[in-house]
């Protein structure tokens, strides 16, 4: 399970008036903005989940979920000259995330991102090695893309069960739709680059 | 185990159905579950020698601390704080779960490797398991700390935890063991306490004062000790030890307009208006609330908050099993029930379906609002407490605090962050019972509560916590008696028992200069070593609980401060106890004293191991499963000389007295009282078993 900070869970008010910004969609964990997520990511991918499999990771007894993701669009990154070639549309990436059920052993923790085959998703990814990517920010870095509404908007949702945002999200949180996320990524003052 | 019908009460809109249930279901307390569809709770199996993690077979769970600790803390107090947190969970009356320090961690991994390691990930938000594979790397960006729990997902051992690891995020967060000095940092011990709660199988709690409540602040966000709800949870998961047999269970079904409510909050207030425990209803509407002290309770139910905007506790705070919780039902009124020791009672709650009229989302203290609970101190006056949420009418809305000792001086309404709010100015009596009270809002004929939203704490004081001296240990019959000199300003005491390694932890701040001096007394009698599962001598440690010297810390934080342990040994060599050859001591681990309790109580109806003695002494009594007995101490026992069965004796017993063995019906004579020794009596003619009054002074049986 995950437990996260709550410095700003306390909302200072004077004379009964709330001064701090309200979290528009109070969520879980220390909320990561698009900029926060991007600062830990090498690339932001829109894609379709083709396959989800749980394996024992290498020789170590850890169930790891492997996700094959077909790239539909590279929304951001990777930074030039860093960490291998840029993913391209049509390419299939393999993401790994510790956790899941293998044989009769389950590894779980709050905030573990979950994937379903056929799901269209946006994922903030850090590259690990030549051919592996990992989601950043646990479930905060994984968005499901909904169908287009009448106005062509495609809503973004996240599965944040089991964790708690313990402080308000700066700037009202992450965009609620795909176009908003594109704009937020485009507005970032610098290119992506996974930071420690 | 019948009771007078008049003890039942029915209040508010709750329809109540009561009955006695046979058998016990241990699978329905609010605990982490194995999957989204299964309510099978997860827990360590303390008896399974096949568990991957070593030493579980000793009925203890070993953990390992990474010696590197936190980069923010150089004096080793970080590891000591984590060790204290483990020890706190190991000190629960009625819980069999015990942790011990199994030495330094061999690495910084979260692998399922049979090593429950605790470490700080400092260089990066990515955990690199140190393997050749990148598959097992993972990002924990944004997470303050993460507890990784491996468990059996299926089969006959489904739910069994087989390994765990706790990682602190040192790359993004600053840590401290002195929140008063570093109010912008996160308190190691508080967070460790919370994460260990997850690692033993507990899910988040909606009780705002609980360690398992999912939010905290920098600085002193919460006490470094367990709330009654935490205690009830671990007892429900690991019943055992002292007083386990006297803990009671409340269970039943919550229905709304005839349909079972999934994911509804059910909680019980004790006679002092304090939250004793909570349970979440399962998908079929059933709930199971274990670990309750015997006594009278009032039981309530209400929906979780809607998970939008501000909220105190919503389904998103719980594991996937509770996804899709039913939030469309009306809060119930209070249903009264009295639990007898060891009893399991079925109590069904019924209410109406429909959107909740009130949805409480924020708590305010002196104008500062947050979605965490708040606190007040004994003797505090003119404190303003407020609750904001939806559905509160502008007029006719009231806010009250459950339990005695809190007086409402005035009430007003306002708007906070677009939400209607009700505020009260209140004063807290100097003798108000300590503990977590509900904040109750009544508006438009509807009622809702913030569970444990106001915790009554010690009054502020200055100076370090008092030292405890004069600790004395003696074996009397099958009992171990402890006594010590009362410490000035002590509001209560913590009492620990275990191996020296367990008590010391890593860098434990009560580490004595010599094993047998200072704070500890060792029970080293050979017969005791023969009884001890670990083969080690047993040590006892007593520390005083006192009002914290520091005030609320952390700007805008919840500001709760804990009763603190003394910072060192009282010094001086204490005499070794006089031990009686052949005496036995129960291996039931000694409980600690729950937070916020005065000497002689343990947060509930049971007086716990503490007893106030004449001559100003305090004493602890340690014995078998029934040592902690509602309303008084358990009678002593001795071994039948004929069949070996335990024979209960009256508290006032003298040499030559005749008792009957309940097993073999032999008539036995008390041959000695220290230790209590029974011999087969000769030619007994219908002798009674002695004085049943038991009104003897305590010091007569305490050494």
Question: In words, what does this structure look like?
Answer:
The complex is a heterodimer of chains A (196) and B (703). Chain A is mainly β. The N terminus of chain A is likely disordered. Chain A contains 2 helices and 13 strands. Chain A is globular and about 45 Å long. With 703 residues, chain B is mainly β. Chain B is 7% helix and 33% strand. Chain B has 5 helices and 43 strands. In chain B, strands 3, 4, 5, 6, 9 and 10 form a 6-stranded mixed beta sheet that branches. A 5-stranded antiparallel beta sheet of chain B has the order 1-19-18-15-16. The interface between A and B is large, with 71 and 90 residues.
Q: How many alpha or pi helices of chain B?
A: 5
Low-confidence stretches of chain A: 1-28
Biggest beta sheet summary of chain A: 5 strands, mixed, barrel
What overall form of chain B do the CA principal axes indicate?
globular
What's the structural blueprint in terms of helices and strands?
The complex is a heterodimer of chains A (196) and B (703).
Chain A: E1 2-3, E2 10-11, E3 13-14, E4 17-18, H1 34-40, E5 43-56, E6 63-76, E7 92-98, E8 100-102, E9 105-108, E10 120-128, E11 132-135, E12 142-148, E13 154-157, H2 178-186
Parallel strand pairs in A: 7-11
Antiparallel strand pairs in A: 3-4, 5-6, 5-10, 6-7, 8-9, 10-11, 10-12, 12-13
Chain B: E1 9-10, E2 15-20, E3 43-44, E4 61-65, H1 77-89, E5 99-104, E6 117-121, E7 126-127, E8 138-139, E9 145-152, E10 160-169, E11 175-176, E12 186-187, H2 188-199, H3 228-237, E13 248-256, E14 259-260, E15 265-269, E16 275-280, E17 286-292, E18 295-302, E19 335-339, E20 344-351, E21 359-365, E22 368-370, E23 374-377, E24 383-390, E25 398-401, E26 406-416, E27 419-428, E28 435-443, E29 446-457, E30 472-476, E31 479-484, E32 492-498, H4 500-504, E33 521-523, H5 526-531, E34 538-545, E35 610-612, E36 618-622, E37 628-629, E38 632-633, E39 637-639, E40 646-648, E41 658-660, E42 667-673, E43 676-680
Parallel strand pairs in B: 3-10, 4-5, 4-6, 6-10, 11-12, 13-20, 23-29
Antiparallel strand pairs in B: 1-19, 2-20, 7-8, 9-10, 13-14, 13-17, 15-16, 15-18, 18-19, 21-22, 21-24, 24-27, 25-28, 26-27, 28-29, 30-31, 31-36, 32-34, 33-34, 35-36, 37-38, 39-40, 41-42, 42-43
Helix pairs in contact in B: 1-2
């Amino acid at each position: 399970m995950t437990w996260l900070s709550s410095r700003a869970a306390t909302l200072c008010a004077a004379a009964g008036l709330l001064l701090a910004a309200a979290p528009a969609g109070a969520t879980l964990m220390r909320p990561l903005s698009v900029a926060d997520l991007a600062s830990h990511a090498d690339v932001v991918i829109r894609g379709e989940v083709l396959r989800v499999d749980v394996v024992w990771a290498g020789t170590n007894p850890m169930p790891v979920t492997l996700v094959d993701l077909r790239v539909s669009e590279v929304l951001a990154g990777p930074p030039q000259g860093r960490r291998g070639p840029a993913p391209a549309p049509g390419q299939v990436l393999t993401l790994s995330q510790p956790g899941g059920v293998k044989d009769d052993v389950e590894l779980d923790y709050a905030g573990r991102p979950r994937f379903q085959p056929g799901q269209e998703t946006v994922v903030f990814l850090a590259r690990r090695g030549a051919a592996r990517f990992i989601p950043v920010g646990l479930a905060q870095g994984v968005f499901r893309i909904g169908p287009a509404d009448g106005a062509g908007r495609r809503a973004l949702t996240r599965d944040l069960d089991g964790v708690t945002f313990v402080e308000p999200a700066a700037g009202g949180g992450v965009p609620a739709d795909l176009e908003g996320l594109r704009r937020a990524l485009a507005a970032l003052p610098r290119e992506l680059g996974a930071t420690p | 185990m019948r009771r007078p019908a008049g003890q039942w009460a029915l209040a508010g809109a709750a329809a109540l159905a009561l009955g006695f249930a046979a058998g016990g279901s241990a699978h329905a307390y609010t605990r982490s579950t194995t999957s989204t569809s299964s309510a099978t709770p997860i827990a360590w199996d303390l008896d399974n020698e096949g568990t991957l993690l070593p030493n579980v077979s000793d009925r203890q769970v070993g953990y390992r601390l990474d010696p590197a600790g936190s980069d923010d803390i150089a004096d080793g107090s970080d590891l000591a704080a984590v060790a204290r947190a483990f020890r706190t969970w190991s000190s629960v009356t009625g819980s069999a779960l015990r942790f011990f320090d199994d030495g330094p961690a061999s690495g910084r991994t979260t692998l399922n490797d049979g090593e429950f390691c605790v470490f700080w990930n400092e260089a990066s938000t990515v955990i690199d398991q140190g393997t050749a594979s990148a598959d097992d790397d993972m990002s924990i960006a944004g997470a303050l700390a993460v507890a990784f729990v491996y468990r059996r997902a299926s089969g006959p051992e489904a739910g069994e935890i087989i390994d765990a690891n706790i990682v602190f995020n040192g790359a993004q967060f600053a840590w401290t063991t002195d929140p008063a000095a570093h109010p912008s940092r996160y308190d190691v011990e508080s967070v460790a306490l919370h994460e260990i709660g997850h690692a033993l199988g507990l899910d988040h709690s909606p009780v705002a004062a609980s360690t398992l409540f999912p939010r905290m602040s920098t600085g002193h966000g919460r006490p470094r000790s367990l709330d009654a709800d935490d205690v009830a949870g671990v007892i429900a998961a690991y019943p055992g030890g002292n007083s386990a047999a006297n803990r009671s269970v409340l269970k039943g079904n919550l229905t709304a307009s005839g349909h079972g409510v999934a994911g509804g909050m059910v909680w019980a207030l004790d006679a002092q208006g304090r939250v004793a425990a909570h349970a979440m209803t399962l998908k079929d509407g059933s709930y199971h609330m274990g670990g309750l002290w015997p006594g009278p309770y009032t039981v309530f139910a209400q929906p979780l908050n809607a998970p939008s905007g501000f909220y105190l506790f919503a389904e998103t705070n719980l594991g996937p099993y509770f996804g899709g919780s039913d939030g469309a039902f009306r809060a119930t009124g209070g249903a009264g029930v009295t639990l007898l020791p060891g009893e399991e009672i079925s109590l069904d709650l019924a209410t109406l379906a429909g959107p909740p009229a009130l949805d409480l989302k924020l708590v305010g203290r002196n104008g500062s609002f947050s979605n965490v609970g708040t606190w007040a101190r004994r003797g505090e006056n003119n404190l303003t407490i407020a609750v904001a949420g939806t559905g509160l009418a502008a007029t006719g809305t009231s806010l009250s605090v459950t339990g005695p000792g809190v007086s409402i001086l005035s009430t007003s309404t306002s708007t906070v962050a677009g939400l209607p709010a009700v505020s009260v100015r209140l004063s807290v009596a100097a003798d108000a019972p300590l503990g977590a009270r509900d904040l109750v809002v009544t508006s438009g004929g509807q009622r809702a509560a913030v569970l444990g939203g106001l915790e009554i704490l010690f009054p502020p004081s200055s100076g370090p916590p008092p030292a405890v001296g004069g600790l004395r240990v003696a074996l009397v019959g099958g009992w171990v008696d402890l006594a010590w000199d009362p410490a000035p300003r002590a509001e209560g005491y913590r009492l620990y028992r275990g191996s020296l390694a367990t008590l010391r932890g890593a860098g434990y701040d009560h580490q004595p200069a010599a094993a047998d001096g200072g704070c500890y007394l060792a029970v080293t009698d050979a017969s005791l070593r023969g009884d001890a599962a670990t083969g080690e001598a047993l040590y006892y440690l007593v520390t005083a609980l006192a009002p914290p010297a520091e005030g609320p810390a952390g700007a805008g934080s919840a500001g709760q401060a804990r009763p603190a342990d003394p910072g060192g040994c009282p010094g001086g060599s204490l005499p070794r106890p006089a031990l009686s050859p052949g005496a036995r001591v129960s291996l039931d681990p000694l409980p600690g004293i729950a937070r916020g309790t005065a000497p002689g109580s343990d947060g509930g109806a049971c007086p716990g191991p503490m007893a106030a003695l004449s001559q100003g002494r305090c004493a602890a009594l340690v014995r078998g499963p029934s040592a902690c007995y509602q309303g008084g101490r358990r009678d002593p026992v001795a071994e039948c000389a004929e069949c070996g069965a335990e024979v209960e004796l009256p508290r006032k017993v003298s040499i030559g007295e005749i008792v009957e063995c309940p097993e073999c019906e032999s008539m036995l004579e008390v041959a000695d009282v220290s230790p209590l020794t029974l011999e087969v009596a000769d030619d007994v003619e219908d002798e009674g078993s002695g004085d049943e009054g038991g009104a003897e002074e305590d010091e007569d049986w305490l050494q």
